[in-house]
Amino acid sequence: MSGRRPTDHSKYAWIGLGSNLQDPVNQVRTALVELDAIPDTHLVRHSRLYRSAPMGPADQPDYINAVAMLETTLSPRGLLDELRAIESRHGRVRGGPRWGPRTLDLDLLLFGERRIAQADLTVPHPGLHVRAFVLYPLVEIAPDLTIPGHGRVRDLADRCDGEGVEPLDIS
Fold this sequence. Notes:
Helix content: 25-40%
Distance between the termini: 16 Å
Order of helices and strands: EHEEEHEEEHEEHE
CATH topology: Alpha-Beta Plaits
Largest sheet: 6 strands, antiparallel
Shape: globular
CATH architecture: 2-Layer Sandwich
CATH superfamily: 7,8-Dihydro-6-hydroxymethylpterin-pyrophosphokinase HPPK
Number of domains: 1
């Protein structure tokens, strides 16, 4: 990880990573490195990689997922712009079928304790509190984290059906 450290005014942001096209394991691993290279941002920690069944159309490959914790001095909008730039470099094409296959999906899950409701940015991320493919990696690195309006990650994961979500045993 980078030796760069943001100023004392930094915030923590939680990013969900997912891929099911063009070598998904490598897509997610590369994206983790790229997250640490975002200006004024530091990758604090990340989960293991997880395999999960697709949430959308069933005729697509399984996803590889992870969650990353970032420390950043960027605004939520600035961070979202950086996430979209990384997705674009990975060949992400927006406008396809909802929950369809993709080379890389980076979701801004949480930004401190903020609640944001804008046309293209909702924080906490909708559905975060019921999606095992996000909660399981998140509970691995931050079990006591609270999702505003929903409760503690550990409790949410305990109530979530983890069918089809499994950690990968790779290094």
